[in-house]
Amino acid sequence: MNRMLMLAGTLMTALLVAAAPARAEPALQLYIEGATYDTVTETWVFSGTDPFTLWAIGYVDHTGPISNVRLSAVYEKSVITGPVSISLTPVLTEGYGGFTDPSYADNPDYIQTVGDGSTPTLGDGSSLPNHGEYGADKEWQEFGLGDFTLTDSPIGDFMTAVPDGTDPAKQNKAQINAYQVVVSGLEAGSFVHFDLYDTIISGNKARAIFAPFSHDAAGDPNGIPAPGPLALMLVGLGLIGFARRRA
Question: Mean pLDDT over residues 205-215, rounded?
Fold first, then answer.
């Protein structure tokens, strides 16, 4: 009897696994070149010096055109040292991680700066769910990235690790808008968190979407960079000289 139950359980598990759909890439994703994926916050985190390169990725082949895509950048009010400027300059991925991007994005449109504790409003009038990044102590800026309609770049699931951008089955599926990001007006070591959202048309209905919070990105544009080889060599020579003077 126990053996029959074990066989039945094994068969049921196999059927459930076979019936489970494979995880598909999200309609919208964010990534920062050279970032590390933080499994606790489920966010791509980059700390370094200006500038860093942010990718806004739309899975257009799967969803169809994604309209009025918007990007928000949120930071703490307490770290503001002056007028906060966030510049987004379109660049290309240049094959980073195997991801080609043959077309420059349009220049983003600055929309607004908000510090009233609210969250961004999606295309259907609802609010972006507050995932701990917004509140009375935060300020955020919003930018319009235009419509995502192209399928000239590879797609992949940017979660935990950078996917393989050379996978033949993933080519010509997505639009990647890459931007060189420069931030001023914040204390050194302060992170800016990014969210990506807006609308797809499904049949005759518009539906608001946003990048899953497991596919967010945060950048520290004023971090302390690792010393380069020349800097390390100079430090070493200085220590040698100091030791000789002490001898």
Answer: 90
